[in-house]
Design goal:
2 strands; about 150 residues; two-stranded antiparallel sheet; 7 helices; Arc Repressor Mutant, subunit A; mainly alpha
């Protein structure tokens, strides 16, 4: 199978997992853009609004609007920044953490399934190559994207 076909197969496999009953019910009211914000907050920890805007490559006003929307849905919360009273920190609520934990489980299950068919050496090679591919994509995205 060619690499592009493999990526397509994995994407379709994940789409089926996302549509499964347990996962689908939890994510059915979350848009991709909202999910992207939740993932960014999960990745960054407790970012300042400006750091989240930079990560999302959008203006701070757009980030503030999305954070407010996700706050109303009890997925994100804001708190004053202890280091700078002018700044606000954003974090996942318990409900947001539960949603991301379900998503982490989905990826963990898929990873275990794939790795169970590999030797330790094959696993290390795959991990190294995918890490390299992700860094390449990340660098490419940064070169082409600029904040609004």
């Amino acid at each position: 199978m060619h690499l592009s076909q493999s990526f397509d197969y994995i994407e379709r496999y994940l789409a089926k997992l996302w549509r499964s009953d347990e996962v689908g019910r939890q994510f059915e009211h979350v848009t991709f853009n909202e999910y992207d914000y939740l993932k960014a907050v999960q990745h960054l920890g407790q970012p300042r609004l400006s750091d989240l805007a930079a990560e999302m490559r959008v203006q701070k006003s757009s980030t503030s609007t999305m954070v407010a929307k996700l706050e109303r849905r009890d997925l994100l919360k804001r708190a004053p920044c202890p280091d700078d009273r002018r700044s606000t920190r954003v974090s996942l609520t318990r409900q947001g953490e539960a949603l991301m934990a379900l998503e982490d489980k989905l990826f963990g299950d898929m990873t275990r399934k794939i790795c169970s068919a590999m030797s330790e050496e094959e696993y290390q090679i795959l991990e190294t190559l995918l890490d390299k591919a992700c860094r390449c994509l990340q660098d490419n995205t940064r070169e082409k994207s600029t904040p609004d």
